[in-house]
Amino acid sequence: MTRPLALTMGDPAGVGGEIAVAAWAELSRDAGARPFFAIDDPRRLAAIAATRGLRVREIGSPDEAAALFREALPVLAEPLAAPAPPGRPDAANAPAVVRSIARAARLAMDGVAAGVVTNPINKKALMDGAGFAFPGHTEYLAHLDGAARAVMMLAAPALKVIPVTIHLSLADAIAALDAASIRETIRIAHAALRRDFGIAMPRFAVSGLNPHAGEGGAMGREEITLIGPALDALRAEGLDIAGPLPADTMFHPAARARYDVAVCMYHDQALIPIKTLDFAHGVNVTLGLSFIRTSPDHGTAYDIAGKGTADAASLIEALRLADAMAKARASGGPGF
């Protein structure tokens, strides 16, 4: 039997419930789509589904999801402590949101779920209501999995990008950047692209930190002292790497044709290009975990929550990509 994907609640005041229902409406009509189930409050999702003439069904176990998926959205119950009016986050619901993530991860680690797809969260609400001590999903899932390091990759049909530093201010990101982090990030990505994407020899393009990649030291020396030596060490291990490259010339079509993934030194250096190229279809992927995790590449969208206008395209892409990654792992491709 095909193992289903686990979809987390996300912030219940955001658009997660709306896009979950919309994604189910589309994928349930696709005979080739992998079933998924939501870990959420069934009453909340039933109310959202009813506005569209759709159905949800509470399940007692993920094993029930596949049989029900074509007729209703399966929901593993995680009740909310308080009402969740659209656009108005309530810290009282934070524990349920965190439990939803933890349950999904456990089901994936136990082999019950084929992977985890996470809806967007509000980190401040989780901090206020549940003492959430992590910068985001990536770090929390690494903690649950016992992974020493997890890597965030954003993927769209036209581009895949990885930032070496993630949820840090620019000043803190520069201070945190070191050769060891660059090497470890690329090694994790190399293994994951082989295992989960079936790329036998991934090609990496790596940016510099400074304008013009430092221009030989005239605009900064990190390319000479940190980035260049890290890349040389990886090339000596047999990895296919170009760089350090000027970031402003890495993302035009001819440049993108020369690599499988771009590695950048900080968050916006990586995310601005991919969100500019394809905002609607970007998917957040966590590499380096024992289980598969994807997510839509957008936030809670409080400003449109409850208005029926949220676009489910990124969540649909996240579910499809998680399915493809699960199939790649099951096929025993070049990473095995």
From TrEMBL:
This is 4-hydroxythreonine-4-phosphate dehydrogenase. GO terms for molecular function: 4-hydroxythreonine-4-phosphate dehydrogenase activity; cobalt ion binding; magnesium ion binding; NAD binding; zinc ion binding. Catalyzes the NAD(P)-dependent oxidation of 4-(phosphooxy)-L-threonine (HTP) into 2-amino-3-oxo-4-(phosphooxy)butyric acid which spontaneously decarboxylates to form 3-amino-2-oxopropyl phosphate (AHAP). The lineage of its organism: Bacteria, Pseudomonadati, Pseudomonadota, Alphaproteobacteria, Rhodobacterales. Pathway: Cofactor biosynthesis; pyridoxine 5'-phosphate biosynthesis; pyridoxine 5'-phosphate from D-erythrose 4-phosphate: step 4/5. Binds 1 divalent metal cation per subunit. Can use ions such as Zn(2+), Mg(2+) or Co(2+). Keywords: Cobalt, Cytoplasm, Magnesium, Metal-binding, NAD, NADP, Oxidoreductase, Pyridoxine biosynthesis, Zinc. Its EC number is 1.1.1.262. It is found in: Cytoplasm. Gene3D superfamilies: Isopropylmalate Dehydrogenase. It catalyses: 4-(phosphooxy)-L-threonine + NAD(+) = 3-amino-2-oxopropyl phosphate + CO2 + NADH. A divalent metal cation binds at H167, H212, H267.
